[in-house]
């Protein structure tokens, strides 16, 4: 199906429409062999709160952006190569239902669909695209992924020292290795994580010590981390952002 659509006029028009919605600030999306598989609105779990984002699934990339005018204008375009993507389901919890993790070496985050059927369709299509890409390239699935940031609302005190209470003066920070919300004192150091940035990034004291001695993997929390994702238990895996300038989701 994808091969038949690759050079079709209908596919070219659909991709042109997406490019037009992002405008001059967006990257060109039309290249030989690229097919727009599907699109839709998903709720992305951002640092401050869940927010609606427009997603476009192509056979080789996943594109998303902020909704300015539904089906007409989007901004802050993000492009994720599917070859490095792995996905995991997220258990329903409260109002956050029908979700899954999108994990890559540079950025990972949770998204939620409106229905269980929509979630299943998205996950099946993403897995199929990734599988096809890996089969063609002969590469193995990505085994490394960035840590999902714990939302600010899930931590009223530092998740490392358990002492510092967050206030307008005592700001929240995020460790780029484990994704925990930590205080300034517990995250004074930086460490080079090449998959996330060409410059050293903020990490908590715990992760810095683990990274410095070269131990594989970094446990999360005060006990072992896992690849589960639970708001109530604060077990997160996987999200990267540039620094703490994403107060208004500017870096999403």
Automatic annotation (TrEMBL):
Entry's InterPro entries? PH-like_dom_sf, PH_domain, PH_domain-containing_F, PH_Phafin, Znf_FYVE, Znf_FYVE-rel, Znf_FYVE_PHD, Znf_RING/FYVE/PHD
Which Gene Ontology cellular component annotation is one that this UniProt entry carries? endoplasmic reticulum
Q: Which UniProt keywords apply?
A: Endoplasmic reticulum, Endosome, Membrane, Metal-binding, Protein transport, Transport, Zinc, Zinc-finger
Q: What is the topology of this protein in the membrane according to its UniProt annotation?
A: Peripheral membrane protein
A Pfam family matched by this chain, by name? FYVE
Q: Which residues form the FYVE-type domain?
A: 152-212
Task: Report the main location listed first in the record.
Answer: membrane
Instruction: Report the GO molecular function annotations.
Output: phosphatidylinositol binding; zinc ion binding
Compartment(s): Early endosome membrane; Endoplasmic reticulum
Domain PH spans what residues? Answer: 35-131
Q: Which PANTHER family match?
A: PLECKSTRIN HOMOLOGY DOMAIN-CONTAINING FAMILY F MEMBER 2, PLECKSTRIN HOMOLOGY DOMAIN-CONTAINING FAMILY F MEMBER 2-RELATED
**What functional role does this protein have?**
May play a role in early endosome fusion upstream of RAB5, hence regulating receptor trafficking and fluid-phase transport. Enhances cellular sensitivity to TNF-induced apoptosis.
What this protein is called in its record is Pleckstrin homology domain-containing family F member 2
Native species: Paramormyrops kingsleyae
- Organism classification, top ranks? Eukaryota, Metazoa, Chordata, Craniata, Vertebrata
């Amino acid at each position: 199906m994808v091969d038949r659509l690759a050079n079709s006029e209908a596919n070219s028009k659909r991709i042109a429409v997406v490019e037009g919605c992002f405008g001059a600030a967006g990257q060109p999306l039309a290249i030989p062999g690229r097919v727009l598989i599907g699109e839709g609105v998903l709720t992305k779990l951002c640092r401050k709160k869940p927010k609606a984002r427009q997603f476009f699934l192509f056979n080789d990339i996943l594109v998303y952006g902020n909704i300015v005018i539904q089906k007409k204008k989007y901004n802050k375009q993000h492009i994720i190569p599917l070859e490095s993507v792995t996905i995991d389901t997220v258990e329903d919890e409260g109002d956050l239902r029908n979700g899954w993790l999108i994990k890559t070496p540079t950025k990972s985050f949770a998204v939620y669909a409106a229905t269980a059927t929509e979630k299943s369709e998205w996950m099946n299509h993403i897995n199929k695209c990734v599988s096809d890409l890996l089969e063609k390239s002969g590469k193995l699935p990505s085994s490394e992924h960035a840590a999902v940031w714990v939302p600010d609302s899930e931590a009223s005190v530092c998740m490392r020292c358990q002492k510092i209470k967050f206030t307008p003066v005592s700001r929240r920070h995020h460790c780029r290795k484990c994704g925990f919300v930590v205080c300034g004192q517990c995250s004074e150091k930086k460490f080079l994580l090449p998959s996330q940035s060409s410059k050293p990034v903020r990490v908590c004291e715990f992760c810095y010590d683990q990274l410095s001695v070269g131990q594989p993997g970094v446990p999360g929390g005060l006990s072992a981390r896992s690849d589960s994702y639970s708001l109530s238990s604060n077990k997160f895996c996987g999200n990267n952002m540039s620094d703490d300038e994403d107060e208004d989701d500017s870096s999403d």
